[in-house]
């Protein structure tokens, strides 16, 4: 680690990627705020981690007031937030665009865009006060260049995350804050293996590989990088 220990907020901490990212930064000695909507999942995966290094908070990211209260507690424990890993999100296939109900569009925007937006809005003031910070959002390779059938609600939400990342980066780069996103293809998770039993998961991206890339974007080595949307496709 090429800097003193920092305070990191990881949203979606109990997910496959969240756990890998938490393990990555724990090994570096960072102070971790592990946020997830499920207290049971937090206890299952992080219950034995010492509070001197990891604070678990269950919170609904779609409720800005609840998020503000949770982060107030986190700041009392660890101080201002210097790094945000915005990993919360969700995926659903769906019917064709003309048959996708409004509720499905709203769900994907809530899960993927609004969770990231609310977390950014909550922590950027800390970073502005410090004069430094790192934010990494999660887009999707499927949202990078063109639409895909039966994924419109998901890919448009993730495309919005990419555009939000670029806008934040343009607004904050002069204040010492780096904002970037990664664009994974298929992540090697138990859920994806079950959903695609005939696929070769060796061609997918492992959560630990994504964690290392996120770790790089949160490091001083990435100081010159602003507004990047980095494809991470493996061989898929």
TrEMBL record:
A Pfam family recorded for this sequence: adh_short
Signal peptide limits: none
Source superkingdom: Bacteria
Domain Ketoreductase: start-end pairs: 6-189
GO terms (BP aspect): fatty acid elongation
Gene3D superfamilies: NAD(P)-binding Rossmann-like Domain
GO molecular function: oxidoreductase activity, acting on the CH-OH group of donors, NAD or NADP as acceptor
Protein family membership: Belongs to the short-chain dehydrogenases/reductases (SDR) family.
Identification of the protein by name: 3-oxoacyl-ACP reductase
């Amino acid at each position: 680690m090429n800097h003193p220990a920092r305070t990191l907020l990881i949203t979606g901490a109990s997910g496959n990627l969240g756990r890998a990212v938490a393990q990555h930064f724990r090994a570096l000695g960072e102070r971790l705020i592990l946020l997830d909507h499920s207290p049971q999942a937090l206890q299952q995966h992080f219950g034995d981690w010492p509070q001197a290094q990891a604070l678990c908070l269950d919170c609904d990211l779609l409720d800005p007031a609840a998020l503000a209260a949770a982060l107030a507690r986190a700041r009392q424990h660890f101080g201002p937030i210097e790094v945000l890993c915005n990993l919360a999100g969700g995926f659903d296939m769906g019917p064709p665009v003309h048959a996708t109900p409004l509720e499905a569009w709203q769900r994907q925007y809530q899960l993927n865009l609004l969770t990231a937006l609310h977390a950014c809005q909550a922590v950027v003031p800390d970073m502005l006060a410090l004069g430094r910070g790192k934010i990494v959002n999660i887009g999707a390779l499927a949202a990078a260049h063109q639409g895909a059938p039966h994924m419109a609600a998901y890919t448009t939400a993730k495309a919005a995350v990419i555009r939000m990342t670029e806008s934040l980066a343009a607004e904050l780069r002069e204040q010492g804050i780096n904002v970037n996103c990664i664009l994974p293809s298929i992540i090697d998770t138990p859920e994806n293996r079950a959903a695609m039993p005939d696929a070769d998961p060796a061609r997918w991206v492992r959560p630990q590989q994504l964690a290392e890339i996120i770790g790089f974007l949160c490091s001083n080595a990435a100081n010159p990088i602003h507004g990047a949307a980095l494809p991470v496709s493996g061989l898929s």
